[in-house]
Amino acid sequence: MFRMNRPTKAFPAIAAVVSMLGLCGSTSAMNTGAEIGTAPDDTQKHAMNMAMDLSVAFEYASDTIEDSVVHVMTEDENRRGFRQQTGLGSGVIADERGYILTNAHVVEAGKYINVRLSDGREVPAELIGTFAETDVAVLKIQADGLVPAVFGDSEDLRVGQWVLAIGSPFGFQQSVTAGIVSAKGRGSVNMSPGDEANAPQRFQEFIQTDAAINPGNSGGPLVDLNGRVIGINTAILSRSGGNNGLGFAIPIDIAGAVMTRIIDNGRVDRGWLGVEMGELEPTDAYDLGIDGGVVLNRVVPGGPAEQAGLLKDDVVVSLGGRTTENLVRMGNAIMLVRPGIPTEIEYIRDGKLRRGNATLQDRDEQRAIAYGGAFIEKLGFSVVPDERVVTRRGRVVDRIAGFQVLEVSPNSTADEAGLESRDFLYEIDGRSFEDPDQLKSFFSEANYQEGVRLKLIRGNMRGYIDLTSK
C-alpha cells in the first residue's frame, strides 16, 4: 500500500438435424396449415422449414454448451466478520481438470469465490490468476463429472453470423439469448452500470454482438451454432444499465491464450517486437489496396524487428497469422506470440509485400533493457534511470537521481504492495542507486521477511511502500 508521510447430453449432429427437418418439415407445416383451415403454399412451407431449422440449431448450440456454463458468486467479510455477497457473474469450464475461464472484474470484488454448476452443485473456487489488461481470470474447482466446453476460432467469425450468449443475467442462471456478430475488432468502450461498471478500461479487442448481454452475463461464453466458445462476454454499452443491443465479448483466441499462460507460468509473458507504431492513414491503405495496417515509426536498434529486417516506415499487415489492420489488432498479435518462438511477419515496403521471421522477446525484460533499465522479475516490475528536478519559485533547488517505474506486472508482489507505473523511486531501504543492474542485484538478495521500504514520489506526493515477498 502506498503511504504518504501520513453429465453430457446426447444430441444428433446439427447437419443431420437440418437434413431430417428437410425431410419431415413439410409434413409438420401441412399439419399446422390443416389446423387453421388454410393450406400453406410452397413459399410459406419453405419459410416455415427454414425457421424450424434455425430453431433446432439454437437448441443444439444451447444443449451443447449448457453443462459447461457456471454461475460465479463472490463474497467478502464485513467489519463484524459476517460474509456478504459482493458480486455475481458467469464462467465457462475450460477443461476436465476444473479450470474455469471468467472475467477479472467478476472476481476482484470478493475474498471468497463459489461456483454453482449446471446440475445445482455449489463448490468453492480457487483464484489461479488474473490479467487485468484483457479482463481475464482463471479459477479452479474440485468436482467430478465436469463437462468442458469446446473452443472455436474467433478469427474465423464473420459479421452477421448467428451467436448465442449464455450466463446468469441478473442472477437468472443458464439464460440463453441469441443475436448476430455486429462487428469485430472493436477497441475500448465505456462500461455500463451494474457489475461491469468497475471493469478496467484497458480492453484491447472486442467482438460486438446484439445478443442480449446484461449485468451477470460477464464471464459467460459467446458461442456459435455448433456450441463452440468464440468469446467471453464482458461488457455492455448502455445508459440505463440494461441491454440496448450493444454487447461486447473478448475473442476466445485472446482469452484462451491468456488462460493457458496463467495456468502454465502463473503470469502472462508478453512478446516485445521493439518498435514504435502508428496507424496507416485510410487514404494510404486505399492506395496500397489493403484494409489497413500499422506503420513502423521507429525500430529499436538490436530489437527483434530490426533483427527480422524491418525498417522505419514499413507497413505491417500480419503477424503470427493474425491480420494487423490497426493498433488494437497489432498489439494483440504481439501479445499472442510467445517470446522466443519465431513467428512470420508480413509487411509492405515500397508497395511490395514482403515476409520475414521475427523472434519476439519478453516484453517486461527487454523493454526495460532497451531503454537502459532493468526488469525485477522476483517482484514483477521494471524501471529505468531517471531524475526529478525540484524547483522552488521557478528556480531549481535540487536534482534527485532515481528510477521511474515503467510497468508493474499484474498480481505480482509489487502490484499487491501498491507500486504503480510512473512512480519515481529515489531511496530503497535507506540506500540510493544509480546503476539498474546494481538495483536488480540488491532486490534479488534482499531479505523481505522484515520488509524492504521504497521511498517514492507519485505525482506531487512523497511517500513509501513496504515490499514483502510472497
Offer a quick outline of the entry:
The protein is α+β, with helices and mostly antiparallel strands and 470 residues long. The chain has ten helices and 27 strands.
- Structural Rg: 26 Å
Strand order of the largest sheet: 1-27-26-25-24-23-22
Helicity range of the residues?
Answer: 10-25%
Structural domains: how many: 4
Q: What fraction strand?
A: 35-45%
What is the number of E strands?
27
Question: Taking all residues together, what is the mean pLDDT?
Answer: 82
> Distance between the terminal alpha carbons, to the nearest Å?
15 Å
Low-confidence region ranges: 6-34, 190-203
* Main sheet characteristics: 7 strands, antiparallel
Global geometry? globular
CATH topology of the largest domain: Thrombin, subunit H
- Helix-strand category: alpha+beta
Write the layout of secondary structure elements.
Layout (H helix, E strand, L loop, with lengths): L2 E2 L9 H23 L5 H25 L2 E9 L5 E11 L5 E5 H4 L4 E5 L5 E10 L4 E5 L21 E6 L7 E12 L19 E4 L11 E3 L5 E8 L10 E5 H14 L5 E2 L2 E5 L2 H7 L5 E6 L4 H4 L7 E5 L2 E2 L3 H10 L5 E8 L2 E8 L1 E2 H8 L3 E3 L4 E12 L2 E14 L4 H5 L6 E5 L7 H10 L6 E7 L2 E7 L3
Antiparallel strand pairs: 1-27, 2-3, 2-5, 3-4, 4-7, 5-6, 6-7, 8-9, 8-11, 9-10, 10-13, 11-12, 12-13, 14-21, 15-16, 16-17, 17-18, 17-19, 19-20, 22-23, 23-24, 24-25, 25-26, 26-27
Helix pairs in contact: 1-2
